[in-house]
Structures are given as structure tokens and as C-alpha cells.
Amino acid sequence: MRVIAGSARGMKLAVPGGMQTRPTADRVREALFSIITSRRELEQAQVLDICAGTGSLGIEALSRGAGFCFFVEQDRRVLAVLEKNLEATGFTARSQIIAVDCLKALRLLAARERRFDVVFFDPPYASALYSTVPESLGVQSLLAGDGLLIVECAARNPLPERLGTLSRFDRRVYGDTALEFFTLEGE
Fold it and tell me: What is the dihedral of CA 156, 99, 141, 22, to 10 degrees?
């Protein structure tokens, strides 16, 4: 796995052994960022990468000019790989790792009144988090008014078109993987 574009283009990212993570394939990340940049500028964007794993999505955003990225990951075995990838790409100063479960991290960020332009959410495909995390983003107003939530999920299990105050505007399928794009209703 490598960084596709931007200042860290071509840098290889470490991946933990075993099956605890499912890194987003290069071709899916390339398509994902084409869709994002067709809708909004990434320059200086505030990014949140939930269930970050190796950090490939947040690192790609930083490489393409995002201002700052919070990475939420609670698996201690994966955290070392995430830290290694941030150091290797030189993005440690423009990032922060929150090593707690997703819902606690969202509460902490809401208490700090953080707002995000781009939020990536890529939990294990069988996770119950699909029903709680996206709605929490809208309810807690963590998504900026014109922000994007991108959810990676199994293609065979589409998410509802509405998640609380979030509305899906696009869905793309790449083999077994689907990318679903949400904004706050009315945006």
C-alpha cells in the first residue's frame, strides 16, 4: 500500500500482519479522492479518520493538503503501525491519534467543539458501529455545514439513505467494497 498523490506520493505505508485491519485498496482510495476533490477543496481541510487502522485515508488527505487530521483507533497492535506511518510520511505534527473507542472519541471531540470538513469511517464490515457512529456525527454537529462523511462498507450491505441528520448523495461500488457519501441534510 502506498500514498497515491501529494507531498508524500509514492511512500509505502506499513500494514499490520494478520486480519485485524482491512486497508482500503489503492484503486478505491484513488476513486474516493477524485470524488472528494470534485466536491470540495482539501487544502487546509480538517479531517477525522474513524477506525483509522493504518491511517491510509487520513494520510492521503494530509498528503493532498489537508491542514490537520485526528485519527481514532483503539487497537493497540494497530496503533504502533499508525504511528510509524505518520512518522514515515512526516505528518506527525499535523495529526493527533485518539486511542479510545469511536463513540468516546466523538464525545471528546464534540466537547472540544471540533468541526470536520471530511470524515472517513471505515470499521470492520460486521461492526455494529455502522448504526451508531454516523448518526452521532450529525447529532453532535461534528460535521461542518458543508462537510462530507465517507463510509466504507460491504457492497452487499448498503446503509440507509438517511442517518439521523445526514443524507446520502452518492454510493459507489468497487468489488466487495462500497463507498457511501453523506452530507448534513439541506447542504
Answer: -20
Count Cβ atoms within 10 A of the Cβ of residue 55 and give its class: 0-12 exposed, 13-18 middle, 19 or more buried.
buried
Rounded to two decimals, the pTM is 0.92
Read off the pLDDT of residues 57-83 as tens digits, 9 standing for 90 and up.
999 999 999 999 999 999 988 999 999
Domain 26-184 CATH (choose: 2.30.30.240, 3.30.460.20, 3.40.50.300, 3.40.50.150): 3.40.50.150
Kindly give the interhelix angle for 76-89 and 56-63, rounded to the nearest 10 degrees. Answer: 20
Residue of 113 and 128 predicted with greater confidence: 113
Run of H or E including 184: strand 177-184
